[in-house]
Amino acid sequence: MPGRKNWDWETGEKLVTDINGVKGSYNWIEEPYASPDGEKIASIVNLDVDKFGVCVNGGLWENTFDKIWHLRYSPDSRLTAIVSEMEEWSIAVDGNAWDNKFSYVWNTMFSDGGLNIAAAFQQDGEYGIVVNDVPWENLFKNMNCMCLSPYGPYSSAAVQVADFGEGEIFKFQEGAYTIALNGIPWDTRFVNVWNCAFSSDGAIVAAEVRLDLYTYTIAVNGVPWNNTFACVWQPVIHPMSGKVIAPVRVSGKWSIAEDGDIIWDSRFLQVWQQLISPDGNKLAAIVSPTYGKWTLAVDGAWWNTQFGDMLTDAVFSPDSSRLAAVGKTDGKFTIIVDDSPWDSKFDMAWKPVFSPDSRNVAAKVEKDGKYFIVINGKQIHKNCDDAWEPVFSPDSQKILVKTIEDGKYYRRIISLSEIK
Amino acid sequence: MAEVIEKTEQRIVDEGLDKGADKLTGDQIARVIKAVLENETGARLKVYVDTCVHCGLCSDACHIYLSQNRNPKFSPAGKVKRTMGEILKKKGRVSPEFIRDAAEVAYTECNLCKRCVQYCPFGIDVAYILLIVRRICHKLGVTPLYIQDTAHSHSVTMNQMWIKEDEWIDTLQWQEEDAREEMPNLRIPLEKEGADVMYSVIAPEPKFQPNLIYYTAILMNTAGINWTMPATPGWDNSDMAMFTGDNEIMGRIKRAQFDAAARLKVKKIVMGECGHAFRSVYDVGNRWLGWKMPPIPIVHAIEFYYDLLKAGKIKIREKYKKSVTLHDPCNVVRGAGLHEKARYVINEICENFIEMHPNREHNYCCNAGGGVINCGPPFKNKRVKSNSVKAKQIRDTGAEILITPCHNCHSGMEDIISYYNVNMHTKFIIDILYEVMEKPGD
Amino acid sequence: MNSPDSFGAIYNFVSGPLVWVAFIVFVGGSIYRFYDLIKLVNRKEKFIYSYMSWKYSLRSIIAWVTPFFPVNMRKHPVLTVVTYVFHLCLLITPVFVLGHGVLIKNAWNVRWWALPESIADFMTLMVIIGCIFFLVRRLVFREVKYVTTMSDYFLLAIVAAPFVTGFLCYHQVGNYDLLLILHILAGEIMLMAIPFTRLSHMLFAALTRAYIGSEFGKVRHARDW
Question: What is the rounded CA–CA span in Å between residue A208 and residue B248?
Fold first, then answer.
């Protein structure tokens, strides 16, 4: 997380805002959002009919709007919202709306460090992406699967580039969709295009494509792989080699293909959400080795521990040696780390977080309507009315815990040595 | 006599079927059939085909057979004979014309309602066999135009009605604004991570019946439910790809829904009064993806209303006065056993509930579900004529209101009511619940 | 057939080695069909196992062997009565008819209870009447006729033959020697046909019921009768 080393890692407990205290000032306060550094807490508030504001640490943004939704902090702790004034929509960052206004705006996106902010927009029935207040020049009849490159400012989406009328099924099947990269469409048209992936430098874009109703593959910079499949899922691009890696379906089973060739010997009933370790040496994915059972596979070898309901939110440790995810069996959630699940079960669990030194895993969880933080299976701090996903300090010695307790928002730094 | 009717019936023109069949060659047909049968079917099809003793006992289960002068070609086994029976007998060496006609049978003469499964002594699943026929027809590109267009919409937008991403959100915000005139602090919370409930609907609601979203918003806010709706694709649980035989798109749209729910960290997905969507998320689409049961529990509206009333979270101001009857939708009754809960809900909110006969798991199908109504205008006349038993069944109740907690049933019933001049109006449960419930302003 | 010697030779053959062949084909064939089926499930539809439930399998099977319990049986009362009588007589008569008992006692000195002759005779007649009933259904009822194939008539004949010939033998109508040999042959043909024709519903009905019973009961919370 950017600038993490500059955050306050010393103050043990900070009562940031008494949310209950400001409640009476507004018709209603919407669900709060805490900034990544924990210093701020914000909510959309209603002031009057068609008059909304954003309340940050108890103080109101200077500007109010006719309508506000989708309040989100960027990774670098800037507060964004989708706002409307006089029937026009825009993005407001820290209270100030962008110059560009549109007929509609949605789907705010941030690049990894938060430097770039983007959103989808519709203007007079045409669609595009606006990045840092700069809209695409070319607009399209329809747009889905919007994507911002990891470090920005490149953006892409699946766009419609040919006309077909209602019920013109054969025209549709000739192909009317492609990827637009920064507003410029690929030359190739496909029956369908979904879910792109960017290389880290933004030079390579890959996407799932359907060539006809039955043939799926991955297109890389507009060129489909030579091999086709019965189905594919979203690709990822290897950060070092630039190779494109995607789950593919062959003869009713799933595996992993790289640049069109299957690289895993194993076949699964499902493979998805593949991820590459930070050092680039390992490839993991969520897999189903037997019907109705879910686990993780690393380079094609799957774990013994399996979950009956689902598995999600997989993440590698920074040193690439460890892997964790959220698993669910019989309606109860837990965290699994390196093939061994935590003993405790929860009603909900959020994506696990590794410490920078890769030694500790923490997660936000919920049980019986109360939220708390768990490190390596052990609860730290008390049950709270709300909590945010924890953040480890750069030296891995401390953890930032953001909670709401009895209507008050607290920011706490807890030293790991205190816990053990 | 039936044969006479058959001959005088006009051949239905459907561009999807006719043009699709024109493109076919015999070799292509044989190849595709072989691939589907070898790669995608197994013991079930084999045992069903080997075990059926051709006793004809399934016939009485089928509303189309009963409505078409008991013409045996419309009996469940008759429809299998006209499709899969011939395909297997000729080992896939069938003509393009045959495929065109088999597609018409599979897509428009069977609702996959599974009533016949309850009438077969061996429990042979005719709906499954006809779904395999649909799969073959999809693979051959011979599908009725309207439903194919819908499948295309699913593939592009992840919803059934070509609704664009902004249109969806805008509709929710518009309903929220309208509902605030009735309930000033009402919210339709979008993208609220960690809510208990993700509410999902089918695309005809935002497109044609946004009032249903309005009513639900009032219900959720009154009951104090911690709920949310996604502002991304995955909000629509309808699934015509499941019915065209496009399993890959079916899987993709179901994944979009479960991904949305998983991302929003909700405990369950509550869905509106739709039947086929329940089937799709509860035991078809999830299975194709490898989930034995839905990874996040799916609660149908009937069950949700039941829970709210049972727990006293919704109170009834005054029961609905008009006499009502209930059409049990196949996908939530034979498909989920919600018939007693539906009766509880209706008795809680209505004064005068009249059963139709047969009822519960044995209710006659609406003849709209299974994608049949989605095959559109070319087949409407045939569809309505093929359900005279339904018209009689509902007319015999003498009720003023017909409650149909399923969108396909609802539309199908409206067509039947108007064609047969039945003096009745269709309503969803929520139409009545909204009318009779206590609201905070009362 | 005219000389006693040739009759003896043929009789010995059909009542000796051919019986063995018939039983081996029946038992072996049945085992093979089950094996083949399970292999097929394992190869292609293994997911089925995860939905199977003993409770709902049995619930479904019991519901469907209980006369007049399923709705459809009540809709066809005559057929229901005939079907039950037919199947019961078809299964019980060959096992407990005195003549078969005597043969087994002579061969292995194993003895079991035998039906009184008049009752066995009556039951045989019931099977024959059942076959005629089914035949008439196939010929007369449109919904049955439409789905009937030639093989269905053959199967009816295969089932009827041992009972018709047995009935005639017992009542000494026609050429007894010839009818006896035909009776034995017909019985053997029927046995051998079970695993490889629609008569295999005898083997698979419980399985199809168990599967759909599990799907309906465990997954869909609904009745399947």
Answer: 13
Count of the separate structural domains present in chain B: 3
Q: Which residues in B lie closer than 8 A to residue A288 (C-beta atoms)?
A: 290
Tell me whether residues C222 and B335 touch, CB distance under 8 A: yes
Q: Which residues of chain A does B245 touch, with a Cβ-Cβ cutoff of 8 Å?
A: none
Domain range holding B181? Answer: 148-306
C5 pLDDT band (50/70/90 cuts)? confident
Element (H, E) at A16: strand A13-18
In a domain, C97, yes or no: yes
Question: Which of B138, B146, B166, B235 is most worth mutating to test chain A (most A CB atoms within 10 A of its CB)?
Answer: B166
Closest listed residue to residue B234, CA positions, set B189, B264, B279? B264
Nearest CA in chain C to A269: C47
The predicted structure's pLDDT at residue C104: 87
Residue B20 is part of a domain; what is its CATH number? 1.10.1060
The reply to whether B57 and B75 lie within a common domain is yes
Which of B306, B331, B347 marks a domain boundary? B306
What is the average per-residue pLDDT within B261-280? Answer: 97
- Nearest chain C alpha carbon to B119: C72
Which of B143, B158, B191 terminates a domain? The answer is B143
Check if the beta carbon of residue A182 is closer than 8 Å to that of residue A165: no
Is C154 within the bounds of a domain? yes
**Residue of chain A nearest B289, judged by CA positions:** A270
Cβ-Cβ contacts under 8 Å, A128 against chain B: none
Interface ipTM > 0.90? yes
Residues B126 and B205 in one domain: no
Amino acid identity, position A190: F
CATH code at C151? 1.20.950.20
Same-domain status, B186 and B284: yes
Nearest-angstrom CA–CA distance, A131 and A141: 19
Residue B324 lies in a domain: yes
* Residue B11 token pair: 């051949």
The whole-angstrom separation of Cα A99 and Cα A114 is: 20
Asked if residue B300 and residue B321 are part of one domain, the reply reads no
Q: Is residue C54 part of a domain?
A: no
C111 pLDDT higher than 90: no
Is cis: bond before C4, omega within 30 of 0?
no
Q: What is the pLDDT of residues A67-89, one digit of tens each?
A: 999 999 999 999 999 999 999 99
Name the amino acid, one letter, at B276.
H
C219 touching B, CB under 8 A? yes
Q: Given a cut of 80, is residue A180 above it in pLDDT?
A: yes
Q: Which residues of A touch B169 (CB under 8 A)?
A: 104, 106
| Cα B71 from Cα B5, distance rounded (Å) | 10
CA distance A358 to chain B (A): 25
C-alpha span between A359 and A393 (Å, rounded):
13
- Would you say residue B442 lies in a domain? no
Are B365 and B395 within one domain?
yes
CB pairs under 8 A between B and C: 133
C-chain residues near B65 (CB < 8 A): 143
Phi, psi of A350 (to 5 degrees): -95, 170
The structural domain count of chain C equals 1
- Sort out which chain A residues have CB atoms less than 8 A from B377's CB and list them: none
Domain contains C178: yes
- Residue B311 resides in a domain: no
In this prediction, residue C6 carries a pLDDT of 82
Cis peptide before C195 (omega within 30 of 0): no
> Domain range spanning residue C109?
4-31+75-206
* B119 and B64 in a common domain: yes
C44 contacts B117? CB cut-off 8 A? no
User: Please, which residues 110-149 of chain C have a Cβ atom closer than 8 Å to chain B?
Assistant: 137-138, 141-149
Distance of CA B330 to the CA centre of its chain: 8
pLDDT band for position A339 (50/70/90)?
Answer: very high
